[in-house]
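During data preparation, a discrete fold description was generated, and the record follows.
___
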Amino acid sequence: MKTATLFAILAVTLAAPAPEKPTAEAAGGAVLLPIAIVRQVQVNPDALGAHSSDFEAENGIVFQFSGSEGVLGGANMIGSWSYPQADGTLAEVSFVADENGFQPQSSLLPVAPAFPHPIPQFVLDQIEFARLEDERRAKEGVAEA
């Protein structure tokens, strides 16, 4: 009897439909499927601290960097990443990270206006007001705050 029960349970288990491929839903209700890794190469630090990594996913994301130990300790790195944008163009960022900090370069990054840039009139008015106040206080013998 135990054997028959065991075979019945086994038959039901094998006859059950296979579970669906796991998915996750994003906040907007879109279904996100797993993204396959197309290429991944990693070189771990050698005796001098040199290391590198190269990664590419099937959705077009690419990330690569290489680095070594810096003169002052720490790590110096150079690398880049890119990804396809919704409009079909490729977003690209390259970077250097060293004793001078993280220095990215990309046409995607905002650029400050060239200096010297025009100073708005309200700023010039405020500067003039402060100058006149300083003159008035000097005439009255009032010490600056």
Notes: The longest strand covers residues 75-84.
